[in-house]
Design goal:
Blueprint: E1 34-38, H1 71-83, E2 88-92, H2 102-110, E3 121-126, H3 131-141, E4 145-149, H4 155-162, H5 168-181, E5 185-192, H6 201-208, E6 214-219, H7 237-245, E7 250-253, E8 263-267, E9 273-277, E10 290-293, E11 298-300, E12 309-310, H8 312-316, H9 321-333, H10 339-342, H11 347-351, H12 357-360
Parallel strand pairs: 1-2, 1-10, 2-3, 3-4, 4-5, 5-6, 6-9
Antiparallel strand pairs: 7-8, 8-9, 10-11, 11-12
Helix pairs in contact: 1-2, 1-9, 2-3, 3-5
Bound molecules: S-adenosylmethionine and iron/sulfur cluster (2 copies).
Length: 362
C-alpha cells in the first residue's frame, strides 16, 4: 500500500502546547478549551425552535451513515484537539442518545488526558427521552456531566414545543435515572420563548428547587434559518431573574471556571442554584473558547458560522496527525467570530442562511 501520508508533507507543524497556558489562541486571544461534538443530525423530537417539522420532515435529507464520523475518527480528532488545548468535550447533536452504542464513544473519550495529565471532562446534552434506559451505562462509561433539556412541566406545553407525543414524565424519569446513576452534576436547560412557555418559568423553578439539579434558563437564539426567530419572542435573562426574585431571594454566585456561559445565582435560603444564559442580551463572545465538530467532520468556530473546515476528507485520505492538527490550529488561529456581539450591528449576517444547530451541535 502506498504511503498516503506523503500527500500531506508540507503542512507546517502547529506549536503543540506543553500546558494549558500555552494553548493556541485566536485573533481575539481566546484559547481553544472546549469541543462540542455533534454525533448525529437526527432527533426524536421536533422542537419548533430547533428542528421545526416543516423543515425537518420525512423528506429532509439527513446525513447518510457513511458521512458520519465513526467513533474511531472522532476519537482521533478529539486527541488532536486535546493536544491543542481542549479540556472539556461535550457530546451533542441532534439527539446524542440516538447514536447507536454512544456509551462506547464515551468510554473511548473518557480515557483521554489533557496536556497537563488531567482526565478530559466528558459531558453530554440530551433531550432525556432515552435517558432512563441509558443513564447507568453512560455513567459506567465515564461520562462526567449531563445536561437535560426540558422546556416545561406540563404535557401541553412540552408537546407544543417538542411537536411530539412524548410525555414530560419520560424526561423526568431520565433525570431521575441520572440521579440514581450517581452523576455529580446534572443540569436542566430551558429555552424560554415568549407566549410559548414563559408561563412555565416559575413551575420549573419550583420543581427543581431542593433537587440538587441546576436549572438554567436560555434566551431564545436566532440559530439556523428555519425557526423564524423574532426578537420579541426573547424573554431576557433579566426578566427571568426578576420573575424568580419576586418569589424567592436570589444571590449572584461566582462562575465555576473562566468562560462559563451561564451566569450563576443561588437561592438565599440554600435551596439550590439556577443559571441564565443570556446569549442575546449579554453576549459572551469575548470568552468563547468553544470549537464545534459537526456530524460529518467539519470544524466550526462559532454557533453562527456559515462555513466550516472539512477535517473528514483529509482524515479519510490518510493525513497524518501533524497535518490534521495543523489544519485545526490554523483554523482556530484565524478565528475572529463574535456573532452575538455583532448581532445588532450586522443585519446582513443576521438574515443570511445559517447552519442549523442540530447539525453543528448545540
Ligand atoms: N437534542 C439535545 C437536547 O435537546 O438537549 C442536544 C442538542 S440541542 C440542539 C442542544 C441545546 O440547544 C438544547 O438545550 C436546546 O434547547 C438548545 N437550543 C436549540 N435551539 C435553540 C435556540 N434557537 N435557542 C436557544 N437554545 C436552543
Ligand atoms: Fe432535538 Fe434537541 Fe433540537 Fe429539540 S433541541 S429538536 S431535542 S436537537
Ligand atoms: Fe461563541 Fe459565536 Fe456564540 Fe459568540 S456567537 S459566544 S463566538 S459561539
Amino acid at each position: 500500500m502506498s504511503d498516503v501520508s506523503a500527500n500531506f508533507p508540507s503542512t507546517p507543524l502547529p506549536d503543540m502546547p506543553q500546558d494549558a497556558a500555552s494553548s493556541i489562541t485566536d485573533t481575539l486571544r481566546r484559547p481553544l478549551r472546549d469541543l462540542r461534538i455533534s454525533v448525529t443530525d437526527r432527533c426524536n423530537l421536533r422542537c419548533t425552535y430547533c428542528m421545526p417539522r416543516a423543515a425537518f420532515d420525512k423528506d429532509h435529507a439527513f446525513l447518510p451513515r457513511t458521512e458520519l464520523l465513526s467513533f474511531e475518527e472522532i476519537e482521533r480528532l478529539a486527541k488532536l484537539f486535546i493536544q491543542l488545548g481542549v479540556q472539556k468535550i461535550r457530546l451533542t447533536g441532534g439527539e446524542p442518545l440516538l447514536r447507536r452504542c454512544i456509551e462506547q464513544l464515551v468510554e473511548m473519550l473518557a480515557g483521554l488526558r489533557t496536556t497537563q495529565g488531567q482526565p478530559v471532562e466528558i459531558a453530554m446534552t440530551t433531550n432525556g427521552v432515552l435517558l432512563a434506559e441509558k443513564a447507568q451505562a453512560l455513567k459506567d462509561a465515564g461520562l462526567s456531566r449531563i445536561t437535560v433539556s426540558l422546556d416545561g412541566l406540563s404535557d401541553k406545553t412540552f408537546r407544543r414545543i417538542s411537536d411530539s407525543d412524548v410525555p414530560v414524565q419520560a424526561v423526568l424519569e431520565g433525570i431521575a435515572a441520572a440521579q440514581r446513576a450517581g452523576f455529580a452534576t446534572i443540569k436542566a436547560n430551558m429555552v424560554v420563548r415568549r407566549g410559548v412557555n414563559d408561563h412555565e418559568i416559575m413551575p420549573m423553578a419550583e420543581h427543581f428547587r431542593n433537587s440538587g439539579i441546576v436549572l438554567r434558563f436560555i434566551e431564545y437564539m436566532d440559530v439556523g434559518s428555519s425557526n423564524g426567530w423574532r426578537i420579541d419572542e426573547v424573554v431576557t435573562a433579566r426578566q427571568i431573574l426578576e420573575q424568580i426574585a419576586s418569589h424567592h431571594a436570589i444571590r449572584p454566585s461566582h462562575p465555576d471556571y473562566p468562560g462559563e456561559v451561564a451566569e450563576r445565582w443561588r437561592y438565599a435560603d440554600g435551596s439550590g442554584e439556577i443559571g441564565v444564559i443570556a446569549a442575546i442580551t449579554r453576549a459572551f463572545c469575548h470568552t468563547c473558547s468553544r470549537a464545534r465538530l459537526s456530524t460529518d467532520g467539519k470544524l466550526y468556530t462559532c454557533l453562527f458560522a456559515m462555513q466550516g473546515a472539512d477535517l473528514r476528507t483529509p482524515l479519510r485520505q490518510g493525513a497524518p496527525d501533524q497535518a490534521l492538527a495543523g489544519l485545526i490550529a490554523g483554523h482556530w488561529r484565524q478565528r475572529g467570530d463574535r456573532y452575538s456581539q455583532l448581532r445588532h450591528a450586522a443585519a446582513e449576517t443576521a438574515t443570511a442562511a445559517k447552519i442549523e444547530m442540530s447539525y453543528i451541535g448545540g
